[in-house]
Design goal:
By secondary structure, the chain is of the alpha/beta class. The longest helix is centred in the first third of the chain and has 24 residues. The chain starts with a strand and ends in a 17-residue tail after the last helix. The structure holds flavin-adenine dinucleotide (FAD). The site of flavin-adenine dinucleotide has 43 residues, from helix 1, strand 2, helix 2, strand 10 and strand 14. Flavin-adenine dinucleotide binds next to helix 1, strand 2, helix 2, strand 10 and strand 14.
Length: 375
Amino acid sequence: MSKAKHFDVAVIGGGVIGMSLAWRLAQRKASVAVIDSKLPGQATHAAAGMLAPLSDAASEGPLLDLGLASLEKYPGFTEEISDLAKSPLHIEGAGILRIARNKDEAKRLKAMFRRRTHLGLPLEMLTPKDLREAEPQLTPDALLAILSPAERHIQPRLLLEALEKAAKHAGAAIYSGESVTKIGDDASEVYTVHTDARAVSCDHLVICGGAWSGSLAALLPKAVLPVTPLKGHLGALDASSGSPLRHTICADDCYLVPRENGELVFGATEEPEAQFDPETHPYTISRLRLDAEALVPALSGLALLSGWSGLRPASPDGLPILGRMSTKKNIYAATGHGRNGILLAPQTADLLTSCILDGHNPPKAFAPSRFHNTK
Ligand SMILES: Cc1cc2nc3c(=O)[nH]c(=O)nc-3n(C[C@H](O)[C@H](O)[C@H](O)COP(=O)(O)OP(=O)(O)OC[C@H]3O[C@@H](n4cnc5c(N)ncnc54)[C@H](O)[C@@H]3O)c2cc1C
């Protein structure tokens, strides 16, 4: 094993969260190493890529604020990355149509519309007639829809590739395919991160291990990160000869995302009981496909391109875990982003960069200490 190379910051985990953070830190001239084991089940690789702050935050609060702030940063974030990485990366789509197919769903959508109209995102309530014009292939069962043109999507795999290039361009060292097995510290509070291939020493250590963040925290004395996997399956149909949809469609049990590359993505399951099982199960993909066809019957004519699955990093209270851990000096967490990590990456990267380099803590609601970070 080679002698430990020293960095200002070591980031464990090279998904969208770790890679965005490494890029921002390197831009601020910190020396940064990213260590990623390329585990099957990585959430970033699996994500649909919707940038949808209104989907998940049931009520107003810190998650909604974080999502709206991150959405606002997305155009600049993608433009900057694609320039640096010379990658064709951009935000896609005509926005989200949230639809209701029965009276209860319609009531919920109307209530959401009333609550959300003052948030600064344009929202439009569509009548069944407007809806038919906007999306003629949608099931006639749709009673009502809310159009949110600002909630668009991105292709997460392209985003991650471009982020890695941008991070390297800014000077970050990326050690890929290496699993962190041990973290040591000495009296001077320099940490040493061990993989089978190398040791990396650092002044600051950030855990961005997605669903595996709990086992990474367990490598440190007295540290706890209560992150659990929330497995999700997705599939993609071949719509390369013309998509039957213009908008992303979100219904209660299913969503459909028409990508510019001709894939029509359908998803997604939520399977906490699957724990760390990274396998993709064809039966689950077939069941999801039936839900998708109930929403847009014309999908039955499209060929299945692929099905896949990934493990979302879920926290007990549904909020990400961001900032300094109370266990030891200069150890941080950026994890627990659940269903929204693609959306939340730009704002997470900025908050953690400012925390590590300037000492500014992210909002208290996300503090790791809320889970009593001691064993
Ligand atoms: C089916 C599905 C659909 C989704 N759709 C959306 C969506 O539409 N919009 C949205 O915003 N979000 C979506 N998400 C959520 C989003 O993908 C995640 O919140 C986000 O990708 C989390 O990023 P991360 O970097 O924290 O974790 P990950 O992407 O999982 O990355 C963690 C990394 O840590 C590495 N790692 C773990 N242990 C070790 C170790 N010991 N040593 C070294 N490396 C290690 C892993 O290899 C992995 O690469 C979806 C997720 C799924 C599964």
